[in-house]
Amino acid sequence: MNDDTPEPASAAPRRPTLPNFISFAMAVALVWLGGQFLMQGVSDNLLDNKPDLAVLWKGDSSDAVAQMARYRLQTRDPSGAARLAKKALQLSPLNARAITTYGLAMEAQRQPVVAGRAMTLAGQRGWRDLITQVWLFRRDLLLADFKDAFDHADALMRRVPAPPAPVLRILAVAARDPNAIRPLADRLAANPSWRVPFFIYLGAYEKPPATDITGQLLTRLEASPARPTDEEIGFYLAALAVQGKYQEAEAAWRQLTPGARAGYVHDGDFELPARSTPFDWWLQSGVGWTASIDNSPDPSHGHALRIDYDGVSKPTPLRQLIVLPPGAYRLSGRMLDAGDGGSAAFAWRVICVQAVDPLANAPSPAGPAGQWHAFSADFAVPTTGCPAQLLDLAVDRGDLQKDITLWYDDLAITSIPGVAPKTQAPAPINLDDLPKP
Q1: What pLDDT, on the 0 to 100 scale, is given for residue 78?
Q2: H helices of 223-323, where?
Q3: 3-state DSSP helix/strand/coil percent for the chain, to nearest 5?
Q4: What stretches in the chain show pLDDT beneath 50?
């Protein structure tokens, strides 16, 4: 197992396929081992570097004898390690390190039942010993005892600021067993520090992305006190979109969005808070540009989208992913100019994902400032090459600075019956090449 490059995912097995204990323990344990077991004082320094001298220095210390037993185990003397571990336990029967060493020595001597009992007892004595948790994590996974296995994984990952990829990879493999979903969701419902990194791993590093597992976990978390965050939902939907599963992504967005309403444009009346998912409004501010949802100048409109722009700075993209089936449509909305003019530089567009030419372009309507004015544009979604679209606000930057304040409300897309769609979308390009407003 390589810490830097995750292995490709295999077909979903009923039981998790894990590496042998040596490679598994090394992959996980080496992340922490440098200095994890250092202790204070002269005798404790000898524990790590010269265990033989440590025993002479402090021969009645259970910790010193336990370290000597661990040293014997590392030099492939399991019989000597077992004897010293027993001596350490005679000095201190509750020495978890000695119990762990004894269990590992018994495993090396092919006594799995005794080893299992010893390691279980060591685990009950404390959760801080790394090797004990690694051993129990592996054993419980192979036995499909997922609840206990995930408890040990949690104990491992709480020891470091960033969870190591090998542990996340093993959890992802284990989660392919349907019986693992509930206990894993229960563990995630406790909001461990590795929860968000695990969802990122499932969507970005598993090959192919484990969106099926993510969907099941998020659905279960939806019914828990620790509901999925916008960030977690956004990672999941983005992973589906990257695979071209746009309809599945939109259905998942509706399932995981309380109060989601019908309609092709999501929150076109801007009455809901902005969220960081592909199907919601991404409102970001930058130099000379501010986009926000606020009380509109006309109380009858409730909330509306407010744009403040200096006319010359680079605007921040404002867009939303939508999924329109082939057919004819009308994009409509209302605009109010509350600034020094400049609305002619703005236009709402509908563009096929990975295309450059817009299907629809609805420029700002003409009319007196301070009043709402309607705008619209008819367009057609072709039968091929346009599985999803972007609804975005395009802006032409000018040369003269202005104080532009625009309000938008009642954005909607409605179907126009009886109009046949085109057969092909505009030529696709890379999404990164899409012109930025």
Answers
A1: 84
A2: 230-242, 246-255
A3: 40, 15, 40
A4: 1-59, 428-437
Residue 159 within a domain: yes
Q: Mark whether 333 and 427 lie in a shared domain.
A: yes
Residue at 13 is within a domain: no
The pLDDT assigned to 9 comes to: 42
User: Which residue reads 């126009």 in tokens?
Assistant: 416
Distance between CA 69 and CA 92 in Å, rounded? 14
Residue with tokens 């292995």, as numbered in its chain = 7
Residue 265 lies in a domain: no
Give the bridge partners for 347, in sequence order.
Answer: 363, 394
Token digits for 244? 């071209």
Q: How far is CA 34 from CA 29, 31, 37, 38, 203, in A?
A: 9, 8, 8, 9, 31
The CATH number assigned to the domain holding 47 equals: 1.25.40.10
Domain containing 218 equals: 21-242
What secondary structure letter does DSSP report for 309?
E
- What CATH number does the domain containing 353 carry? 2.60.120.260
